[in-house]
Amino acid sequence: MCGIVGYIGTKKASPILINGLIRLEYRGYDSAGISTIEKDGLSMMKDKGRVKNLYQLEGMDNLNGTIGIAHTRWATHGKPSKENSHPHMDNSKTFSVVHNGIIENYNELKNFLADNGYTFYSQTDTEVIPNLVHYYYNKDEKNDSLKFLRAVKNACCDLKGSFAIEIICKDYPDHMIVTRKDSPLVIGKGEQENYISSDIPAILSFTRNFYLLNDYELAILSRDTIEFYDKHLTILKKEPKNIEWDATSAEKDGYEDFMLKEIYEQPTAIRETIGAKLNEATKCEFSELNFTKEYLSSLNNIYIVACGTAMHAGLAGKNVLEKLCKINTQVDVASEFRYRDPLVDEKTLCIFISQSGETADTIAALKLCKQKGAKTLALTNVIGSSITREADFSIYTHAGPEIAVASTKAYTSQVILITILAIYFAEILEIAHEQVDLLKRDILELPRKLEETLALSESIQSFSKKVYQEKDIFFLGRGIDETVAKEGSLKLKEISYIHSESYPAGELKHGPIALIENDITVVSIITDKNLVEKMVSNIQEVITRGAKTLVITNQDIDETMFDMTIKIPKTNSFISPILSIVPLQLFSYYISKGKGLDVDKPRNLAKSVTVE
């Protein structure tokens, strides 16, 4: 959940590092700091609070070093404080380290180091790393060019848990070492300079060429070179990947907030994700997959495993996979999946959804399924992310960088991609029916219908002004609409801090209706023509008890009975969640704005949850 940035080149490092940290603010953090190599040794500037606070630190303007590392911290071990902020140094101030992840055996390592004369000044797990590197550095009697690398490698072999690490050393003023395990890290190659970050958008304005490290691989960076090694210090050859994202897509482009920009980018994100995978005339294309009819026919189960919004996309995927492919499909919360000993074997396909591709719980669940013999498929937005290197197969949404913490365009892109995947499976299985052809046609119409839906924002904003000060809001749906109710409720929680709950509308009378009283707001979704009468009946139950009602629908209903009705375009029920969620995204956004909150960086949340 932390962010890391590094620079080695010919320019002054400190402004580049701080600019990179600002671009990573969306990940969530409570403190920030940088360290550079200066003529008189290592510098360290850090404090709790916002990145901009670094500019006020005494001595910041005097930093001239052209090599440095930087960090935004989200507290796991130790409260937010200057002492617990990164970077951390060893006792001799020979090494400076920033670290993303969790060192699970830090107490054991701390006791070992204390027994060997080391002192600790913070409550963090990270502080063991520079001191452990120093311990091995001192033990090494060779004074060659690889002494620094050997010390880092030996220290990392002792670490249990997850880490992405940048290390600089005063004895090697022209080099930096980086390494990772289960935490994101990318290296950007420039001309006489190199960049490091935990996320591509932070350094995308400097380079389009990126190197990706696998677990336990190390890289030594100078201004002109990057050398790669495996954990046995065998030299590796790596080719850079060219990232086609436009750097301006990480900017607001005139929108007041990233979240609003990303809501309005959904028609483009859907077009890009559909890409060349689907057209009406031919079968779906996934060149990266090689599933056969024999394999798909052998499956007893499909598991979709994800967290938060991605899990809600999985619920929409369950509906289409079961109905088109006739394969039993279950959706599991990744953080719970491993701990119930799931019934997974070689006749199970496991699909893992993660916007960042770095979600720790989801990656851990993936590894378990591989151990049990299942084929694994990653669905993510980030090429080269950790989950794609673990999975047997990977497919990508093309939503572009999503900066706001609350996911919008990534969610709708996930829903459309898993829907196209279900069509692909159905065609391999030769389950030929008119429903597939109609669904294809409706998918190709989706970008235009999303634009029509976005044009309804004024009505949604009007209703939000009436309810933005409420303490409780409820969401109702049936069938596929109940999955949208879950996601709408989550969006409201995330960015407005209003308590909200979603329920299957038919469950109202089994308990939740006790919470409905005069002036409570109830939001309902109605897009399934087979459930219109039942949904209207359920809504009437809350109206009778004095509730205010907002209804999102594409069905022909009597609108006069509700306080506000938002009519969205009609579409296939399999993809209706992509249209019906948009008014709820806008609803949450306008409520948060009405309350004067920071829409893009809600409290206590981070974009990439890279720890369990």
CATH top level of the largest domain?
Alpha Beta
Number of helices: 17
Q: Characterize the main sheet.
A: 9 strands, antiparallel
Decide which structural class fits the backbone: alpha/beta
CATH superfamily of the largest domain: Aminohydrolase, N-terminal nucleophile (Ntn) domain
The chain-level mean pLDDT equals 91
**Helicity range:** 25-40%
The number of domains is 3
Overall geometry comes to globular
Q: CATH topology of the largest domain, anyone?
A: Glutamine Phosphoribosylpyrophosphate, subunit 1, domain 1
Number of strands: 26
What gap, in angstroms, lies between the N and C termini? Answer: 10 Å
Low-pLDDT residue intervals, each spanning 5 or more residues: none
Question: Architecture of the largest domain, CATH level 2?
Answer: 4-Layer Sandwich
> How big a fraction of the residues is strand?
15-25%
Calculate Rg over CA atoms: 26 Å
Describe the structure in your own words.
The mean pLDDT is 91. The radius of gyration is 26 Å and the shape is globular. Helix 2 packs across helix 3 and helix 3 (128-139) crosses helix 4. It contains 17 helices and 26 strands. The protein folds into 3 domains: 3-248, Glutamine Phosphoribosylpyrophosphate, subunit 1, domain 1; 252-453, Rossmann fold; 457-594, Rossmann fold (3-Layer(aba) Sandwich). 34% of the residues lie in helices and 22% in strands. With 612 residues, it is of the alpha/beta class. Strands 1, 2, 3, 4, 5, 10, 11, 12 and 16 form a 9-stranded antiparallel β-sheet that branches. Strands 6-7-8-9-13-14-15 form a 7-stranded antiparallel β-sheet.
